[in-house]
Queue: 2 jobs
Job 1
Amino acid sequence: MQTTKVGIREFRENLADYLESKTPVAITRHGSTIGIYVPTKPKPRQADLEALRVAGERMQELIAAAGTTEDEIVADFKKARRGRRARKG
């Protein structure tokens, strides 16, 4: 993973941006690295997990209402993707 090198002043001034970034940051003072910030992966919030569960249930309902199966949808998707790739070259 690529590390971004920034001076301590820049790090402090743009702290919010660096905290939201997924890229590690090497913090320097006078050109020497004095610390490294390594972001962690955020845990999904309970509301996000619940929304995903509800969306999955709704998707199952739509698939059943269409009278198809997940396997048929996947096969159609793969066929469309192969066709697109063949046209590209």
Job 2
Amino acid sequence: MVNRLVVDESDSHRRQNSSRGNRLPALSYVATSEPVYVWLRLEPGTDPIQGIAGLVEQLGADSGSIVQCMGSLSRATFVIAIPDESGGWRFSEPIVKLGPMEFLSAQGTWGREAETGRLIVHLHGFVVDSEGKAHGGHFIPGGSRIMATCEVGLLTGDGLTI
């Protein structure tokens, strides 16, 4: 069940921010009972998103958070948000970086698509190439490969739809 929390207008923080024209947004959240922490080591050649998806399908874990992800990659594929012609934004074309790279950090969520029940793994992370340059964004399923290893920490829960 998705709950909605609206911050009270009388809240002092809201009053302080309102004077500057800022307003605190209403928040949506999902509270789960009895989360389970799962630690996973992915092998060389595995795509991180596909490896995580395979495990959570096997566990029957319909939703949760990717709270830790680090290792090394031989290939990273991701997109970033860029401005579009209308003044809004869109995703860039996929950006492909070839390794060796340190996969310094990633986090995300997974859940079932509300209409189809399809599992969606949403992962954002960043890597550092062999010249020490950082790159990162929204990782694309199937586009990255683990070089040596990748350790992942997952926190499972129930009730999240994407």
